[in-house]
Amino acid sequence: IFVLAACGETVTNDKSVTSVSVSPSSGSIETGRTISLTAVVNGENLEDADKTVTWSATGAGTVDASGVVTAGDAAGSITVTATSDCCEVGTQSGTAVITVTEPPDPEPTTGSITVNVTPNEATVSVAGGPTAVADFVGDRVLSGLEPGEYTLTATADGFEADSAIANVTAGNSESVALTLVADEPPPETDG
Q1: Looking at residue 4, what is its pLDDT?
Q2: Could you tell me which of 17, 23, 35, 37 has the fewest CB atoms within 10 Å of its CB?
Q3: Helix/strand/coil for 8
Q4: Rounded Cα–Cα distance for residues 178 and 166 (Å)
């Protein structure tokens, strides 16, 4: 664009984009999360120029028209590009690379008890602890138990009961063996 100045001078007022800066230029987010990027169009004589950019993304996520990047559901990377087509000189673009990571595994909040009972037909009852457990017959793994102290008692007709205490802690499995001994028959009397 040429502007005629006083005294017959010709002044050039060319607008030109020299670069597009994307901030942050790199980053890391977990799957399903978002991060906002900004773009700055740099150049000469851009005071009254349209400095909007067009956003695009390739890889493990998407970007919207405002520069908000959304990670997909798998780890990988997202290359985000901001492109300006301002002015007569042509397009310029800037990029950012966002790393997508899997979220860490949550800390366990429950534990389990592996119960082995002899004879296998014995009924096992569980008392104590913050998690209610129904009576059951035979060997069993009790999972999803809140931490605490549980008393397990095995009973069967013709056998003496056996009990054991299991201290359940989060993320751990406790093993309990209950062995029933046959009742002693009553002593014979002479008579």
Answers
A1: 43
A2: 23
A3: helix
A4: 12
112-170 residue pLDDT tens: 999 999 998 999 999 987 777 888 888 889 989 999 999 999 999 999 999 999 999 99
Q: Give me 99's structure tokens.
A: 């790393």
Decide if 176 contacts 116 (C-beta within 8 A): yes
User: How large is the C-alpha radius of gyration of the chain?
Assistant: 37
Beta-sheet strand order (sheet of 111-118): 140-145, 111-118, 173-179
pLDDT tens digit sequence for 42-86: 888 778 777 889 999 999 999 999 999 999 999 999 999 999 977
More confident residue, 135 or 5: 135
Cα–Cα distance for residue pair 109/118, rounded to 1 Å: 30
Report yes or no: 98 and 69 within 8 Å, Cβ to Cβ: yes
Strands of 102-170 (E only): list them.
111-118, 123-128, 136-137, 140-145, 148-155, 159-160, 162-168
Amino acid code (one letter) for 186: P
Q: What is the pTM of this model?
A: 0.58
Amino acid at 169: T
DSSP string, 34-49: EEE-EEEEEEES-TTS
52 contact partners, CB below 8 Å, separation of at least 6: 84, 86
